[in-house]
Amino acid sequence: MAVTIREVAALAGVHVSTVSRALSAPHLVNAATRERVMASARQLGYRPNRAASALTTGRTHNLGLIVSDIANPFFPPLIKAAQAYSREREYHVFVADTDEDPQIEEELIRTLTKQVDGVVLVAPRLTNQTIERLSLELPFVVVNRKVKGVSTVLMDIGHGTETAVAHLCDLGHRHLALLAGPRTSWTSEQMRRAAGRAAEARQVQLTVIGPNAPSEHGGTAAASRVLASGATAVIAYNDLMAIGVIEGLTEAGAGVPGDVSVVGVDDTVAGRLSRPKLTTIMMPTAAAGRAAVDLLLQRIDDADDVQAQTILETGLTVRESTRPPAKP
Amino acid sequence: MAVTIREVAALAGVHVSTVSRALSAPHLVNAATRERVMASARQLGYRPNRAASALTTGRTHNLGLIVSDIANPFFPPLIKAAQAYSREREYHVFVADTDEDPQIEEELIRTLTKQVDGVVLVAPRLTNQTIERLSLELPFVVVNRKVKGVSTVLMDIGHGTETAVAHLCDLGHRHLALLAGPRTSWTSEQMRRAAGRAAEARQVQLTVIGPNAPSEHGGTAAASRVLASGATAVIAYNDLMAIGVIEGLTEAGAGVPGDVSVVGVDDTVAGRLSRPKLTTIMMPTAAAGRAAVDLLLQRIDDADDVQAQTILETGLTVRESTRPPAKP
DNA sequence: GTGAAAGCGCTAACAC
DNA sequence: GTGTTAGCGCTTTCAC
Q1: What is the count of structural domains for chain B?
Q2: B79: in domain
Q3: Nearest C-alpha neighbor of B272 from the set A275, A257, A199
Q4: Which CA distances in Å does B189 have to A238, B181, B234?
Q5: Same domain, yes or no: A85 and A97
Q6: Are residues A270 and A169 in the same domain?
Q7: What's the CATH code of the domain at A49?
Q8: Does B268 touch chain A (CB under 8 A)?
């Protein structure tokens, strides 16, 4: 076994409790002894055993980060930022992937409960009710969802959607299709509403298609319905779905952006790399990752169960997949 | 605090140790009492506190997974597979990103040591010597690296590289460039050797350029040197770099694959999505993730420090970025 | 300012 | 087959 607080105490010629204090509450300890303790600790290469301290303090210094699909390029920048920021704040993070399955999600939270001080749920597939229930036992921060009593980080997709609709209308489109995401996605619901409002305001037709799987395949599968609807422009739930629908449309003989314009959401590498380069609603994923951890630690440290909320701006990145509609 | 083994014991009318046994060594307990214990546990929603049991058993049931850059599309499928497989085996995984920085990598391993039963190092940036030293304190599995005394999962990039060289030679190329990766990358070194051998065997010229950053930027930055070398085909260290060099070449007026052919490595979504679609050496990332966890758990459970090794096959995925050289 | 002692939740000898 | 006991490494009263 590795070096313990005992050995540090022995070397420094003090009691273990003094070592403990020197390390976690330095101001309670004489400067001279503190120095001696620190020196011994350094010399022995002492590293506190967090499992042990978790037992007494109830603080594990670990966080959970639960996402629906790590392989979706939306998540990695968020995970990366959350993890880097946690490391700065001396927290480790368990990253878990639920494969879009609410049951796995709940089970994961359950088994993680004892091992973490809090959990960040990104775009959960769980119902609000379930999240509310679980949040009684453990601090949560939810990203892209509103849940009563739970701190949230929201990316203002409503605004981004309006901008996208405006962009398409300005190009001259009069009939838009919206490819919805998973049924329990808050983001998808926000998009639907915002698109509905914006379309009405501008007097253009809107066809909602879905729910669809938030993947390339979800997009290709929806292509025929887009064509059947007669829409000349489509806004997809995310970049992956947008790329998929472009494939599907192209295969069906409809050019993008020649015949149909396509807008994605997330602004992932995928959209930047695929051709035509995707016009997409930018989601501030890295900022969201940091903000979520920030809120979570705040909640953990203060324990005044204040429900905080951070709203992040979205924007429209116009590239090559949108263009005025073909003249009939 | 949540429900403990004590309360379960009280409800079942037995001693805590009986509960502990019923849960972790059921065969040591009378079937009837076991049932009673189980029932009580279920009724109270008891979940063992792993931090506590870690303290006595020395087993945390956690693993560490350390990668250089989560945002590199090479990693997510590996992480996803490793995590899903760990979950099946009742392990949680800490995922950490080192930002390509060996110092962060070492520090991360150090702080993780007490909290995990073992660590998977994917394409580490640390020196073999450092890894050997660290492996004395904790079981390791290294992916795409050979380290004395440490179990490894290798993707046979040498073979993939030979296949790629053969493919380019068959197309008629007589001068190839190899864009090397980071200096401490085992994969890069294997590629260099295999490409050297294969080029010599086929009597074609090979120019090695690098080291380069394993990113798009690393690729664009190297484009001018590719052009200067006079090579008509280039094999890049990974897909990202390949995409970058294509951008760089295109900007410099050299068409891909018209003037120069480009081969990537990894077979990520990025390569499939970008245009021209990338010809690339396929790396079995998901399989590697599972294999790594498998080896690690084996090592943890058996403790006979046998050094195991799993070799995974690579292959060549031919798409649009390679073509016969332009006639001079 | 520092030491002594109890205890976090659990497991692992050792009795019986 | 089950209870008793000690103790994992650390923190935290409580004395002094």
Answers
A1: 3
A2: yes
A3: A275
A4: 38, 8, 16
A5: yes
A6: yes
A7: 1.10.260
A8: no
> Which of A57, A74, A99 is a domain's end point?
A57
pLDDT digits (tens, 9 = 90+) for A111-128: 999 899 999 999 899 999
CB contacts < 8 A, A to B, total 126
CA distance B99 to B111: 17
Beta-carbon separation of B115 and A92 below 8 A: yes
Question: Going by C-beta distance under 8 Å and a sequence separation of 6 or more, which residues neighbour residue A225?
Answer: A209
Give, in order, the Cα–Cα distances in Å from B199 to each of A136, A157, B173, B228, B280: 64, 52, 11, 19, 18
Confidence band of A306 (pLDDT split at 50, 70, 90): confident
User: Is there a single domain that holds both residue A70 and residue A80?
Assistant: yes
Cβ contact, residue pair A92, B87, below 8 Å: no
- Asked if B179 and B277 sit in the same domain, the reply is yes
Phi, psi of A316 (to 5 degrees): -110, 125
Alpha carbon of A80: minimum distance to chain B alpha carbons (Å): 6
Structural contact between residues A161 and A137, judged by C-beta atoms closer than 8 angstroms = no
Q: How many CB atoms lie within 10 A of CB A31?
A: 9
Residue B28 lies in a domain: yes
> What is residue A301's predicted lDDT score, i.e. its pLDDT?
86
Query: What's the Å distance between residue B28 CA and nucleotide C10 C1'?
Result: 17
CATH assignment of the domain containing B309: 3.40.50.2300
Nearest CB among A50, A92, A95 relative to B83 is that of A95
Nucleotide whose C1' lies closest to the alpha carbon of residue A21: D11
Nucleotides of C under 7 A from a protein CB: 1-5, 7-13
Query: What CA–CA distance (Å, rounded) separates A290 from A313?
Result: 14
CA distance B252 to chain A (A): 19
Give the integer Cα–Cα distance in Å for B4 and A231: 59
- Identity of the residue in A48, A92, A270 whose CB atom sits nearest the CB atom of B94: A92
Mind telling me how many Å the CA of A148 is from chain B's nearest CA?
A: 23
Mark whether A81 and A143 lie in a shared domain: yes
CA quadruple B192, B196, B197, B198: dihedral positive or negative? positive
What tokens were used for B114?
Answer: 């007490």
Same domain, B234 and B301: no
- Is residue A327 one of the residues assigned to a domain? no
What pLDDT sits at residue B303? 63
pTM (2 decimals)?
A: 0.94
B139 and B164: one domain? no
Count CB-CB contacts under 10 A for residue B32. 8
Give the closest of A49, A92, A97 to B83, CB-based.
A97
Separation of alpha carbons B28 and B169, rounded Å: 66
The helix-helix angle for A75-88 and A285-302 (nearest 10°) equals: 40
pLDDT digits (tens, 9 = 90+) for B126-165: 999 999 999 988 999 999 999 998 999 999 999 999 999 9
Q: Final residue of a domain: which of A57, A79, A100?
A: A57
Nearest CA in chain A to B92: A94
Q: Is residue A187 part of a domain?
A: yes
Contacts of A154 (CB under 8 A, 6+ apart): A143, A144, A146, A309, A310, A311, A312
How distant is C1' of D15 from CA of B51, in Å? 31
User: A256 and A114, same structural domain?
Assistant: no
Q: Answer whether residue A1 shows pLDDT above 80.
A: no
Q: Which domain holds residue A74?
A: 62-155+284-313
Query: Binning pLDDT at 50, 70 and 90, where does residue B1 land?
Result: low
Task: List for chain B the helix, strand, coil content (%; round to 5).
Answer: 50, 20, 35
B51 touches strand D (CB under 7 A): no
Q: How far is CA A127 from the centre of its chain?
A: 17
For the four alpha carbons of A101, A283, B100 and B110, in that order, the dihedral sign comes to negative
